[in-house]
């Protein structure tokens, strides 16, 4: 334990003391597409990542939501705590909680808005402004290797993976194809870390043609995404508590930093090859093994393996054992963690666990559906009773409602509601609903761990098959991606 | 004359059927083998990839394997013409389909032993298709 901690300290120290060359730059892009889509977690992630990069002495250019505009561009959820003093809004929210619960607005009742607290923001992430800024940045220093990090939201494309988007401020979008065009202004290597939903489509940045083909762009581009081009990513939960952060950013940058978000030294040495520096690939492999989340993350070299797989291998039931490589090791480690026996038929055990998870999800969904029905009935009945006493309640966007609210009647209503026998049942059901939601997420996370095992097996085989069946140019392309991914945070010259 | 034309029609049907069935049979056999042997890679695809991608890959495999499937169809027709004429050779009719499938495994794969079972099983299923048609053809002749 002490050894791994010391090793982690050493890695962190190395990372912090590494002399940066002027050729390195980091571009940090973050925030939601509008106020409702701009969660506090994204902001915290951006601030933390910015700090990690700054500690590594890499110049970082940050773009966040509306830039320096003073308007509110982040929302978060107020969590009651003894240490912090409650504001007037928090007090009022507490008093109005029964009304909010009656109308299922109890979560919004805790929602607060404010301007972001990210430092050194160069500009907005509005798609047009960001595109221009990035083009200028790459054109002015075309020979500087860069690391692009995006923390925000993304959207799927049903037509083509290169049409997946970054959902940027003011409801604007930037597709992978468009970003590919912007990167063409750079003559240097580019690495990226994208953690949004459907981020896997951005691996097409690494290819010469963003829409199709296997030929890689030159110079090499590589990166890491939280998800494939077809799945939602973990993260973006609006909780501002950092204890439950399980998104890709949290694990990936903790592995690079040697410390987790709470400043604790990681219990595992992330420098797996013991060369004294943690490469991005090592951080990725650490994340794959240790993140208990719904993310099925991947790197560009892994994406390349999937794209390379020949048609005559894809459908073959390979009866050989797992080859010896890093993915087989990950498979064994994660399987061991979840009690899956490697002797016999691990695939059957994995599929059986996924099936059990599916049954658990069905049962939780059924309970939730029954709960919603009961809740709706009680709420409906209480709303009718309340509407008899406060007729303006039935028209929430009317003058009568405004008069009622201004006269303080809402507080009287909240007091009346809290004394109703059914109100306590509403609270119980809503709390249970919240618990069920957490339970369902947990089951989904467990299912993802099983899918991860399948993914590791697949990658392990694919890597082996590439060296058996691939042409020399395909092997060279794969190795160039692995080499690009293996570089530390500061690009080696 | 009538016998020759019906023989040609049967040959055509046989060749077409083997060519059309080769790829789906190959995929189905691999899924079944993966299931029976507890090996997961083919079945895992359903959990790892969007269904529309799998369908697209299946269709792509269908198209690109067409020359091999057509070759199998031609082999089946030649086998049918040569081996079903006499009772003695009739016992071995269709065997060239299985042999051809095994040959494909040895030509295309660096480690044919790993995929040997899949190709033998594919050959056997296609042989069954061949035999059903062959028996149908004989019954028609007798009728």
Q: Please, could you describe this protein's structure?
A:
The complex is a heterodimer of chains A (493) and B (143). Chain A is globular. Chain A has a domain at 9-305 and 470-486: Rossmann fold (3-Layer(aba) Sandwich). In chain A, helix 9 (300-308) runs antiparallel to helix 16 and helix 11 runs antiparallel to helix 15 (421-469). By secondary structure, chain A is of the alpha/beta class. Chain A has 16 helices and eleven strands. In chain A, strands 1, 2, 5, 6, 7, 8, 9, 10 and 11 form a nine-stranded mixed beta sheet that branches. The model of chain A is unreliable at 1-23 and 238-242 (pLDDT under 50). Chain A starts with a helix and ends in a 7-residue tail after the last helix. Chain A has helices spanning 2-17, 40-55, 88-95, 97-102, 127-140, 176-183, 248-257, 280-290, 300-308, 311-314, 326-337, 346-389, 399-406, 409-418, 421-469, 472-486; strands at residues 25-31, 60-64, 74-77, 111-114, 121-123, 146-155, 165-168, 172-175, 190-194, 221-225, 298-299. With 143 residues, chain B is mainly α. Chain B has seven helices and no strands. In chain B, helix 1 crosses helix 4, helix 4 (66-83) runs antiparallel to helix 6 and helix 6 (95-108) packs antiparallel against helix 7 (112-142). Chain B is elongated. Chain B starts with a helix and ends with a helix. The mean pLDDT of chain B is 89.
């Amino acid at each position: 334990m002490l050894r791994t901690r010391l090793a982690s300290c050493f890695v962190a120290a190395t990372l912090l003391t590494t002399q940066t060359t002027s050729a390195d730059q980091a571009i940090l892009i973050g925030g939601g597409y509008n106020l409702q889509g701009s969660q506090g977690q994204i902001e915290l992630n951006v601030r933390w990542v910015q700090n990690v990069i700054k500690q590594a002495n890499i110049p970082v250019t940050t773009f966040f939501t509306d830039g320096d505009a003073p308007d509110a561009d982040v929302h978060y959820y107020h969590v009651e705590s003894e240490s912090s003093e409650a504001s007037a809004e928090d007090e009022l929210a507490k008093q109005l909680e029964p009304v909010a619960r009656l109308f299922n607005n109890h979560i919004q009742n805790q929602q607060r808005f404010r301007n972001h607290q990210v430092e050194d923001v160069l500009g907005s992430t509005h798609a047009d402004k960001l595109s221009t800024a990035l083009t200028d940045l790459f054109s002015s220093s075309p020979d500087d290797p860069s690391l692009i990090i995006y923390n925000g939201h993304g959207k799927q494309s049903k037509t083509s993976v290169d049409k997946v988007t970054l959902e940027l401020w003011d409801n604007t979008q930037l597709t992978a194809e468009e970003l590919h065009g912007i990167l063409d202004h750079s003559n240097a290597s580019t690495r990226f870390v994208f953690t949004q939903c459907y981020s896997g489509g951005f691996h097409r940045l690494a290819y010469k043609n963003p829409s199709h083909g296997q030929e890689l762009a030159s110079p090499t581009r590589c990166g890491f995404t939280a998800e494939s081009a077809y799945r939602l990513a973990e993260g973006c939960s609006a909780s501002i508590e950092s204890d439950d952060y399980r998104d890709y950013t949290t694990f990936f940058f903790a592995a690079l930093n040697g410390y987790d978000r709470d400043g604790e030294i990681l219990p595992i040495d992330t420098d797996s090859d013991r060369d004294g520096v943690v490469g991005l690939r090592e951080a990725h492999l650490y994340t794959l093994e240790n993140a208990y989340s719904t993310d099925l993350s991947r790197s560009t070299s892994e994406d390349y393996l999937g794209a390379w797989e020949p048609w005559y291998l894809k459908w073959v039931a390979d009866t050989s054992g797992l080859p010896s490589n890093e993915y087989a090791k990950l498979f064994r480690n994660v399987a061991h963690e979840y009690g899956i026996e490697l002797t016999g038929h691990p695939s059957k055990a994995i599929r059986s666990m996924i099936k059990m998870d599916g049954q658990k999800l069905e049962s939780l969904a059924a309970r939730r559906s029954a709960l919603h029905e009961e809740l709706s009935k009680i709420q409906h009945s209480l709303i009718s009773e309340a509407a008899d006493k406060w007729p303006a309640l039935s028209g929430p966007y009317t003058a009568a409602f405004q008069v009622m609210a201004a006269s303080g009647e809402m507080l009287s209503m909240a007091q009346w509601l809290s004394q109703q026998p059914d109100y306590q049942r509403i609270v119980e059901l809503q709390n249970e609903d919240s618990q069920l939601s957490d339970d369902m997420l947990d089951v989904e996370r467990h299912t993802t761990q099983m899918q991860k095992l399948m993914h590791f097996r697949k990658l392990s085989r694919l890597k082996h098959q590439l060296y058996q069946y691939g042409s020399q140019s395909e092997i060279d392309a794969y190795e160039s991606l692995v080499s690009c991914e293996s570089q530390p945070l500061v690009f080696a010259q | 004359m009538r016998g020759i034309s019906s023989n040609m029609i049967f040959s055509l049907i046989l060749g077409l059927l083997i060519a059309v069935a080769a790829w789906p049979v190959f995929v189905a056999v691999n899924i079944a083998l993966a299931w029976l042997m507890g090996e997961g890679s083919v079945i895992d695809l359903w959990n790892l990839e969007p269904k529309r991608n799998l369908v697209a890959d299946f269709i792509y495999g269908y198209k690109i394997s067409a020359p091999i499937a057509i070759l199998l169809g031609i082999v089946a027709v030649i086998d049918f013409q040569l081996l079903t004429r006499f009772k003695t050779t009739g016992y071995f009719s269709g065997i060239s389909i299985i042999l051809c499938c095994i040959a494909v495994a040895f030509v295309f794969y660096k480690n044919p032993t790993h995929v040997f079972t899949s190709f033998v099983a594919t050959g056997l299923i296609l042989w069954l298709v061949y035999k059903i048609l062959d028996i149908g053809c004989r019954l028609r002749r007798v009728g």
